[in-house]
Design goal:
Oligomer: single chain
Order of helices and strands: HHHHEEEEEHEHEEEEHHHEHEEEH
Helix content: 40-55%
Shape: globular
Radius of gyration: 19 Å
CATH topology: Nucleotidyltransferase, domain 5
Largest sheet: 6 strands, mixed
CATH class: Alpha Beta
Number of strands: 14
Strand order of the largest sheet: 11-6-1-2-3-12
Distance between the termini: 27 Å
Strand content: 25-35%
Number of domains: 1
Structural class: alpha+beta
Number of helices: 11
């Protein structure tokens, strides 16, 4: 089950690719058009409309990535948009795949982690990197933090959970304890019973947002977000998904951006089908300490802990 969780957490890669192998030509080109709309370059994340896609593909034609042999590292971002705010990276997940070792390594960087923001010569919460400089600054800040290069980025607007879950007809999750969560404007409160519950898009969004009532705080919220992503993936794989394919792709193209090209997504899905789904999963957890400062609350990660994770990632990326 854990393998499905992490591969589900690659968000769009497999949700997008699944229809490519089972539907007809018309659906194929419809999916391709939507995926093209999701594509961004790391230096210009606004450059994602269909008029620019041909130029983008030309720029990246010679990108040296061989997914059959070389280790790859992905940055998965869940962007929380707020009124009058450029947004924050509320979910920051690093996923590395080493085909030679047949292993996948993943870890979340807690959003309140205090670190140096790339290019700003100042320290702040790592999720604020997105508000300073979007995907580019976030990627560079995470690369500095892990002391390793990231090959590609997949990011989803967390509000897009609402549209995506509704497009596939809702999801079912197993809730570990009952709680209530208000919406982002504080106008309505949602109650979640313990046990198996059905969620529509609005309910899934706020189920994924709750952290203050969770004994594990941010870590508990990350687990619920994984739950919802996994449930979305399972629903998207069902035979009935063909009937909501257009709505699903519309929801994705409106809320997902990625540096991965359409041709690469197809190859990634083939690798998932043939090999990756059987790879051993290694989930790493960062040890954090609470830190109160005049400007607010942070998670502090010691130099020793940061170095430990950097070394584990470096060792993981070595080919045997």
């Amino acid at each position: 089950m854990k393998k499905k969780i992490i591969l589900g957490s690659l968000i769009t890669i497999f949700i997008i690719a699944i229809p490519l192998s089972i539907y007809g030509v018309k659906q194929y080109y419809m999916v391709k058009d939507h995926v093209d709309d999701m594509h961004i370059t790391i230096d210009d994340e606004q450059n994602n409309n269909s008029d620019n896609n041909e130029d983008i593909d030309d720029e990246l034609t010679d990108r040296p990535i061989n997914i059959h042999d070389e280790p790859l590292t992905y940055l998965l971002l869940g962007i929380g948009n707020r009124p009058d705010d450029p947004g924050r990276a509320d979910v920051i997940m690093v996923v590395s795949i080493n085909p030679d070792k047949e292993e996948i390594l993943t870890f979340n960087i807690p959003r309140d982690t205090k670190t140096e923001i790339s290019g700003k010569n100042s320290y702040d919460k790592i999720n604020h990197a997105y508000s300073y400089g979007g995907t580019k600054t976030t990627k560079e800040t995470v690369e500095d933090f892990i002391d390793s290069e990231i090959d590609d980025v997949v990011q989803i607007n967390m509000q897009g959970f609402r549209d995506l879950v509704d497009a596939i007809g809702g999801v079912t999750v197993d809730n570990s304890f009952s709680f209530e969560q208000a919406d982002e404007l504080g106008k309505e409160t949602y109650h979640y019973d313990k046990g198996e519950i059905d969620l529509d898009g609005e309910e899934a969004l706020h189920y994924s947002r709750m952290r203050k009532q969770d004994p594990e705080g941010d870590l508990g919220r990350n687990k619920r977000q994984k739950q919802v992503i996994e449930a979305i993936l399972e629903k998207a794989k069902s035979p009935s998904a063909v009937f909501s394919l257009n709505d699903t792709m519309q929801a994705l193209s409106s809320n997902v951006k990625t540096t991965i090209r359409f041709s690469e997504i197809k190859d990634l899905f083939k690798e998932y089908q043939s090999d990756w789904k059987d790879f051993e999963l290694k989930e790493e957890t960062l040890d954090v300490e609470d830190e109160w400062a005049p400007e607010g609350f942070y998670f502090r990660i010691t130099d020793e802990e940061q170095y430990r994770v950097q070394q584990e990632l470096a060792d993981f990326l070595e080919k045997e």
